[in-house]
Amino acid sequence: MQGTLWARQALLPDGWAKDVCVTLDAEGRIATVTPDTAPQGQRLDTLLPAPVNLHSHAFQRAMAGMTEARGPDPRDTFWTWRRLMFRFLEHLTPDHARAIAAMVQMEMLEAGYAAIAEFHYLHHQPDGTPYDDLAEMAQGHCAAAEETGIGLTLLPVLYRYGGLDRRALAPGQRRFGNGPDRFAALFDASAKAIAALRADSGIGVAPHSLRAVQPEDLAFCADLAGDRVIHMHLAEQEEEVVEVEAALGARPVTWLLDNAPVSERWCLIHCTQMTPQETTGLAQSGAVAGLCPITEASLGDGIFDGARYLTQGGRFGVGSDSNIRISLVEELRGFEYSQRLRDRARAVLATPTRSTGRVLWDGAVAGGAQAAGRASGAIAPGLWADLVALDAQQPDLAGRVGDMTLDTLVFAGDHRAIRDVWSAGRHVVRAGAHVNRAAIVARFAAVQRQLQALM
Known about the structure:
The chain is of the alpha/beta class. The protein has two domains: 3-49 and 379-438, Urease, subunit C, domain 1 (Roll), CATH 2.30.40; 52-372, Metal-dependent hydrolases (TIM Barrel). Helix content is 38%, strand content 20%. It is built from 14 helices and 17 strands. The chain has helices at 78-89, 94-111, 136-148, 180-195, 215-225, 238-248, 252-259, 276-285, 293-298, 306-311, 328-343, 356-372, 403-412, 437-454, and strands at residues 3-12, 15-24, 30-34, 42-49, 52-56, 115-120, 151-158, 202-203, 206-207, 230-234, 266-270, 288-291, 315-318, 387-390, 418-423, 426-430, 433-434. The protein has an eight-stranded mixed beta sheet, with helices on one face. α2 runs parallel beside α3, α11 (328-343) crosses α12 and α12 crosses α13. The chain is globular, with a radius of gyration of 21 Å. The chain starts with a strand and ends with a helix.
């Protein structure tokens, strides 16, 4: 794992530097960073810190393309998609889920992510019966991470009810359900699985949403997490806002900020339904807003108020959520473009000193590391060597330097610009392809055919 990288330009914590030598230690951390050096080691064009994909439901990758036909409902929405997702879940086995997770992780690495925070709520058998090993499904994510080399923060999800009225879980939700005692046991088993993986792996806790847990469950989750990260879906759909306000007397973001110890350890996913006051309050809490622009567009969630949020010092990261399309640059592009469409303006998220692409990349890298509780997020000594190198042979990048490199990557580029990726020093993407691509793709394709025959 030790090695020496040399880049014509690299994005360091204090800005762009030229002729940068980066050495990696045996553990996979960055040992030294030295600008203005002679070429040595593996020669690269542009070296960037690689972000964490902070929100993923890996199993949904196998649903991509299966939910785009109009059903019997007069209006297709998030809620009709959700019913199809529950139906799909009736057929997934642990072997299926592991093959899908490996495919997802591989695609994330090839897209430029170095790590993943997996929001893991598929715990049990289709009828809700636990597996003999409560962490059976969690073990599948760990096995996939062992094969792909991605950095994994596992987020076991507490999911108790079918709604704020505490109704029982519907048939499609039974695989998710746990009471506090069984969830604590599941968390402990998952933590052991993570501890056996690699030093850069981690675990957190995820109360699913205000619809699926009760107020007292948030304190339980916070206690269980200790100093680890806490993730939660929040304020994704208008119907959700109405339900929460009717049951709890306040809108979701307002209620959470007033009633939970929201801090830098929290990552709140989506938040596409906020008032200006809520946007400011969330920004000032120190929590990370977990944005998933591709999925939010796919499901018709709404537009996150990014311009206001960043002006107030808010922190954000990006994730691929439903994994209908895994593309880091498209998530970043979609975030900015949603602001432009709403405000009828350009370069909405840019600042006087940083271009749009730079703001997006810096935010995703820092926010993703914070949300995953991962010692990464910059090319700096002591941090995990989560790195991405761009392909100098891509014509769009020819002659581009500094922030314009990122602007070109985000607004004119795609995954073909990603040449090499390191996750905690593991060189897992080389010349644009994952080192285990063939086997992972073949296994996933076989699972796809099996599932398609069952639907």
